[in-house]
Amino acid sequence: MPIKILIADDHALLRQGIKNVLALEADFCVVGEAIDGEDAIEQAKNLQPDIVLLDINMPKMNGLEVTREIRARLPRMRVVILTIHDDENYVFEVVRSGAAGYLLKDVEPSMLVQAIRLINEGQSFIYPTLTRSLFDEISRRDEVVSMLDKRKEERLTYREIEVLKLVGEGMSNIEIADKLYLSQKTVKNHLTNIFRKISVGDRTQAVLYAIKNKIVVIE
Prior knowledge:
Blueprint: E1 3-8, H1 12-22, E2 28-34, H2 37-47, E3 51-54, H3 63-73, E4 78-83, H4 88-97, E5 101-104, H5 109-120, E6 125-126, H6 131-149, H7 158-168, H8 173-180, H9 184-198, H10 203-212
Parallel strand pairs: 1-2, 1-3, 3-4, 4-5, 5-6
Helix pairs in contact: 2-3, 4-6, 7-9, 7-10, 8-9
Domain Response regulatory: 4-120
GO molecular function: DNA binding
Protein name: Transcriptional regulatory protein DegU
């Protein structure tokens, strides 16, 4: 049985390029192409591909939202993110969303083919140069969790500490939302909870609290 693949990217030229590469493999079959996030979910349901090659930046729904939706509705389907972003935050969020692979768009065709075959067999695949970044990000987040464990009386969640840290670094609500893949409303809700839990009335007091408790380190 051929490996059925759905390509989801809003750039027609890129979709065609990927399709041309995959067409060279006798055991691959491109069953569909999606132009936005909602289209990707609909086609995934209708076409039942084995693999979804998914861009992270797409109209209507981004790749992370699509991945979560597919994993919730179609848990046996494997999602591979194909993107230009090599930031460790992207890698971590993609893995956390349930994707089985993370590849950069400048990947060699042979590596893309290898990744698809491995992922179809139940394995995971991360672009080799990003593996170190992923472990570094996991380590950093473990440190935050450890920090949280030491402050149980404050009852700040992991996400609240993360938001507070970014506030301390001078980020606006919009920037925090983009960084953590949240809505601005969710960021505001986190800030309201943070202010209440640490008994402060504004961002400035929250930043001072973060510095005092070494959530933010001033260099």
